[in-house]
Specification:
α2 packs across α4 (68-80). The protein is globular. The longest helix has 28 residues, at 9-36. It is mainly α. A hairpin with a 7-residue loop joins β2 and β3 (96-100). It has a single domain (10-179), classed as Winged helix-like DNA-binding domain superfamily/Winged helix DNA-binding domain (Arc Repressor Mutant, subunit A, Orthogonal Bundle). It contains eight helices and three strands. It has a three-stranded antiparallel beta sheet.
Length: 180
């Protein structure tokens, strides 16, 4: 096993980059909590929801690039706080849609884009070949670090919320495996 003291400069550079990203995400999340009283995950969902009149939970999951159950839990908390409201779809009575309230719009005006939003924008600006290479390499690092089974929930969901989301994701995965 290689000790960290024998690590190459490249390993140091990668770890420093990851640390900077995590630090930026943490600072952005703490700012949202301090300024708005909501988590960074909730702010990111609000930002994505503000980009359309109404979105279903599945559409919101696509826009936040995360699992539907994770977004559902975050959205429920936003509804509880009066920042988002649920509507039954006009076109499909089985579909529930989410929309920002006036209070939700007002909250968004108080804060600049989150680090999460800036990361998404930066990744989208990358050349496809570089993005594919980065994706493959990060998946390999995650697997080799023994983290491949960890759910990819929204950044800095609070602990209770994360545990609830993990249970939902595990149930969903088990159901999908049974169907396969």
């Amino acid at each position: 096993m290689v000790s960290h003291t024998n690590a190459s400069p490249e390993v140091q550079n990668v770890l420093d980059s990851i640390r900077r990203i995590v630090r930026g995400l943490r600072i952005s999340s703490k700012m949202a909590e301090k300024e708005l009283g909501i988590s960074g995950a909730q702010l990111f969902v609000l930002q994505k929801l503000s980009q359309a009149k109404r979105l279903s939970v599945n559409e919101l999951a696509e826009r936040t690039l995360t699992h539907q159950s994770s977004v559902s839990v975050v959205a429920s908390r936003l509804v509880e706080q009066g920042l988002v409201v649920r509507f039954q779809s006009e076109g499909d009575a089985r579909r529930i849609e989410l929309e920002l309230t006036a209070k939700g719009h007002a909250q968004l005006k108080k804060i600049p884009p989150t680090t999460q939003e800036n990361l998404v924008i930066a990744l989208q600006k990358m050349k496809v070949t570089n993005l594919l290479q980065l994706s493959t390499l990060l998946q390999s690092v995650v697997a080799k670090a023994g983290l491949a089974q960890e759910p990819a929930s929204l950044f800095f969901e609070d602990e209770k919320q994360r545990k609830k989301t993990n249970k939902i994701v595990k149930k969903t995965n088990k159901k999908a495996q049974k169907k396969a």
